[in-house]
Structure formats: structure tokens, C-alpha cells
Amino acid sequence: MDRVRNLLEQIQSRLDSLNKAERKVAEVILQNPQQATRLSIAALAQAALVSEPTVNRFCRSFGVNGYPELKMQLAQSLASGAAYVSRAVEADDGPEAYTRKIFGSAITSLDSACQSLDPQIISRAVDLLIQARQIHFFGLGASAPVALDAQHKFFRFNLAVTAHADVLMQRMLASVAHTGDLFVIISYTGRTRELVEVAHLARENGASVLGLTAAGSPLAQASTLSLDIPLPEDTDIYMPMTSRIIQLTVLDVLATGVTLRRGVDFQPHLRKIKESLNASRYPTDEEPI
After folding, report:
1. Full domain range(s) for residue 250
2. How far apart are CA 267 and CA 275, in angstroms?
3. Which positions fall inside the HTH rpiR-type domain (predicted)?
4. Is the dihedral of CA 162, 167, 169, 170 positive or negative?
5. Domain of 215: which CATH number?
6. Residue 92 contacts by C-beta under 8 Å, 6 or more apart in sequence?
7. Structure pTM?
8. Nearest to 214 by CA among 249, 188, 243
9. Which of 84, 113, 128 is the last residue of a domain?
10. 83-119: b or e for each residue (b if 16 or more CB lie within 10 Å)?
């Protein structure tokens, strides 16, 4: 049953090692596994622009006797629900088990990310943030709320800061960019075509681009500087969980770096912002009303 449950994960993990024709089959399946369970072998072959024997070879390469058995295993994998939740979770986990697994997975992933991040790249990223005339945080999908969180953090540094999750607005801002503008583009995979195009457009207009993304990805290559974020989970299959937590933590690291670089003279400004929130809160039990 584990092999069935992990079939989608196996296909994704072996994607780069498949030959060109079989990779086309894999990409069609991964793009919409639910639809693949309903396609005939002829329809799948047509969608992947390959022959039916290629589909059969693809099945055998994953230890499956033929396409009908592959569809059955895909259906069982989808029915379990676990594949689209988290790598750590099994379909029969109870509340205690999946709570422990999710927390454990997040802690392990954060520790792994901490070990792999290059402090010199962190320092250079802080340089870009300090020197920027204005900063735009861009993200799409699960990275969009991360971009909004970054806006909440960085506006405190007395900089012009925005966050946008709309592709058209992102393109317009990139098209009127100038030297001194910094675009921080957040993408876990770094393969989102629109964000890569925006990065190129911003740099063509003289702006700098800081990518928070996967090493070697198209976005990393398009960026002025890429802060490579490890890939503890496959978001083509799994719901973004630890990946989002890592992104948020990396932004906390950058915000802390900016704060320390600004020095003690900047502390009164941060304190003033924090104290402005006092009137919006109910007092604690210990405080007088």
C-alpha cells in the first residue's frame, strides 16, 4: 500500500531521470492526476504527444503491468488524501499522529534550511534591502500571503514598501521600475512563468531583483541575487506547509539583519511604531482600566 500511496511522489522524484518521451507522460499525469485516472491510454498518449507503447513503457518503469493498473493506483493514491496534504502524513493517521508529524516535519525542515543557507548571501541580501529606494514584494499562490507578511515587517524601516499578488500589477510596476528599486520575488519552485518574466522586465528597467526561491531555478537565474531556499517538500503534489514556514522565517532573518544594520539610532523609530498599537488593545488583567 505504501508504494501505491507514494506513486505520485515516485513519479515526481524521478522526473529528471526519465527519457524525453516518458517525461512528457509524467508531466501530463502530474499536471492533473485526477484527470489522468479518467483518460484512456490513447487519450493520455495524445495529450503527452507520444505513442501508446511509450505510455506502456512508462508504466513498466514504475513496476506497473499496464495503464489500467497505473490508473487504479493513481485513484487509490488520490483517494487516500495523504498525497495532497503532507509527505509526513499517512491516510490512517489520527489527530495525535498527524499533529506530531506536522510539527516534527516543520522543525526538521527549518533546521535543515538553517544549515544550508549561506550567511554571505544573507549579508548581500540585507545590503540590497538597505540600499533600496523602494521595495516591492511579489508572490503568487501560496507565496502571496508571505509577500504580504513581508510588507508588514519591512514598512517599519521607514521605506516605501508594497506587496502585490496580482500579475498585471506586478508587470506594470516592473515596467516602470528604476535604478534603486528592489523587487523581492518569492516563489518556492522558481518555475512560475509570470514571475520569471516580471524579474526579467524589472532588471531590464534598471531595478534589482532578490529571488527567494529554489537554487538553479529559472527565477534564481533571472534574479540579481538569489537566496536559495531548500526544497523539503514537492509542492506540485503536496499542500505547501513547511515551505511557507521556511519562507516566513527567512524573511524574519532578513528583517532582523536590516534592524541590526540600522543600529541603535533606529530603535526609537521601531519603538514608536510598536507603542502606537497600545491604544488598540484591551488591557491585561494586571493593568488598570
Report:
1. 102-275
2. 12
3. 5-81
4. positive
5. 3.40.50.10490
6. none
7. 0.65
8. 188
9. 84
10. bebbbbbbeebeeeebeebbeebbeebbeebeeebee
